[in-house]
Amino acid sequence: MYIFISKTKGYHIKLAVFDFDSTLMDGETIDFFAEQLGIKEEVAAITHKAMSGDLDFFESLQMRVGLLKGLDFKKVEEISHNLPYMAGAIETIKALKDAGLTVVCFSGGFRTATSYAKDILGYDADFANILHHKDGKLTGLVGGDMMFNTSKGDMITRLQKILNVNREETMVIGDGANDLSMFAHADTRVAFCAKEVLKKEANVIIDTKDLTQILSKVTL
Hints:
220 residues; alpha/beta; globular
């Protein structure tokens, strides 16, 4: 059995929060959607700017989802249910769960992907955004839990209060600028194949696409 130790001596980690796109999943969900409309490069460029911290996340989300207007919702669901999960995701989450941690997914992406992946990857709950659709097609509108740069930080502090968990008992794992706000509330901060803006705030850095490396980085 693994025992997960916080960077603050004496605290065991009780809560692990993962980003989804490019962390639990190998890629960006919205880029897969955009590929269906022949605009993958345009959408991917906006995503890159947002994840690097060069573009406000809320503005980038609105821009990208707006470009998806007219895409069949059935195609959205099909893509969301066939995404490539990151190497080691299932094994790592199982190890965390076996050690008694609560494991949660925060995503600036979409619930069509994160809710479907929950039972496959094994995490306890997901918080993400919802693509509005009407008459079977995307309207270009979006709403949900993770719309802003500050959303993950706001949600993690709520969870910590509900679960009676402090920052020393919290581990966060992400790759982009919109993960910064949750990094501010955890003592174990894992930058996974991350942008430089996030690496600067991390105390665990993994540059190989294998989530099981977390297990050796944070266990004794």
